[in-house]
Amino acid sequence: MSYEYRTGLGWDSHRIAAGRPMLLGGVLIESEFGLDGHSDADILLHAITDSLLGALALGDIGMHFPDTDPRWKGAESMQFLLHAHSLVAEKGYEIVNLDTTVILERPKLKDYRVKIREYIATNLKVPIEAVSVKFKTAEKVGPVGEGKSAEAQAMVLLRRQVRE
Ligand code: C5P
Ligand code: MG
Predict the structure, then answer these.
(1) For residue range 133-151, what is the model confidence (pLDDT) as tens digits?
(2) 23 CA to middle of ligand 1, Å?
(3) Pairing state of beta strands 2-18 and 149-162?
(4) What are phi and psi of 26, to 5 degrees?
(5) How far is the CA of 101 from the centre of ligand 2 (A)?
(6) Under 8 Å between Cβ of 27 and 112
(7) Which of 6, 22, 57, 93 has the CB geometry, 3.0–4.6 Å to 29, for a possible disulfide?
(8) HSE of 93 in the Cβ direction (CA atoms, 13 Å)?
(9) Whose CA is nearest to atom 8 of ligand 1?
(10) Atom of ligand 1 nearest to the CA of 139
(11) How many angstroms separate the Cα of 100 from the Cα of each of 11, 24, 88, 124, 151?
């Protein structure tokens, strides 16, 4: 038995806004500001969703869930990720591992790492060891560093069994 592998890359950025919740990887972060967006603006789940779609060349999150569609206003981003995951499963692929980075000046996120990894792993039905979540500041430089926006990056490796 051997495997066929595919890798995918995802990236997202949203503006920082007062009076909005900050959700990262489906986890509510204690913060005096949040992220602006049509949906719940969870950049980490959006980047992961795009990495899954990208791995199988299935387009991008905006193609599947247009932000002009009222159905997705305030939508919980986990439903985007679960949909992308179902497309991956339909094609016979499973997740080997996910590696991600959130770039945000503040607040500090490291105490949320385990909770975020657990939430993503549980939803994607993979062991927690398959989900890596890293955090970086932008060293006070550029829009992220100046606290105007936040970014997330994700990479995924998928595999499917092939008969020899
Ligand atoms: O960006 P910098 O290298 O200074 O980040 C140092 C560490 O601080 C990171 O490795 C990460 O663990 C943590 N961090 C965090 N929350 C952030 C940014 C960084 O917990 N918003
Ligand atoms: Mg987004």
Answers:
(1) 999 999 999 999 999 999 9
(2) 17
(3) antiparallel
(4) 80, 0
(5) 14
(6) yes
(7) 22
(8) 22
(9) 136
(10) 1
(11) 9, 12, 19, 15, 11
Determine the residue type at 125: K
Ligand at minimal distance from the CA of 104 is: 1
DSSP secondary structure code for residue 30 in this structure: P
Q: Which two tokens stand for residue 131?
A: 């989900």
**What global pTM score does this model have?**
0.96
Ligand 1 pocket: which of 22, 29, 108 to mutate (most atoms <8 Å of CB)?
108
Residue 137 in contact with ligand 1 by CB distance below 6 A: yes
**Structure tokens of 13?**
């950025």
Between the CA of 87 and the centroid of ligand 2 the distance, in Å, is: 19
d(CA 138, ligand 2 centre) in Å? 19
Domains annotated for the chain, with CATH where assigned, are: 2-162 (3.30.1330.50)
Question: What tens digit of pLDDT does each residue of 4-48 get?
Answer: 999 999 999 999 999 999 999 999 999 999 999 988 999 999 999
